[in-house]
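Task card 7
Instruction: Convert sequence to structure tokens.
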Amino acid sequence: MANDSALTRRSLKTPKAAAIAGILFSMLLAANFWLLRASLPADPLEPGQWLATSSYPVTLALNLVPFAGIAFLWFIGALRDRLGPLEDRFFATVFFGSALLFLAMLFAAAATIGAIILTFANTPDEMLNSTTFRFGRAVAYNVVNIYAIKMAGVFMFSTSMVALYTGLTPRWIAVLGFVLAGILLVGSYYISWSFLVMPVWVFVISVCILFDVFARPEQEA
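Output:
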């Protein structure tokens, strides 16, 4: 019985979990962002014509958000398990806290847009050009493009710092993370597609971990 428990524990701790979850998260978030950017106007105060013409791709994007969040949580947990005793409490707090805040704000923005779509389906004439619609749209825009994206930058910065001092990833990935985190923290307002920086960086880390696992198969035995 004890041997079975130990084998199960080792299988749950495998770094492949971090790699696979990270790749899945990056693909889902990139698809989600592409669907939203292709369907929603950049102006948060637009009159809402997309509700009548592009609500389906937006709804599809909103339904992908929970699955991206689950994959992201798995990715974070597997990364922390991979760090083990090397994890510093200060950076662990910033790393974990920023990740949870990012997810919470992403979910809140998705729920707001989802509520707008449901309300429009019930009362379409009253919803278009209404103050309620403009308020909800502006809230979702601010939550994602100001607050969530900044938390994504903090997550990338703290993860890069941990990776730099623990050797979790090659040094160049940590340095790249600092540069991309700076883009999110400072230049996200000026670069409309800057939100893709995070899923691309997570994808790079995940592929690196996956290659490392297959390069050292004896660790999986």
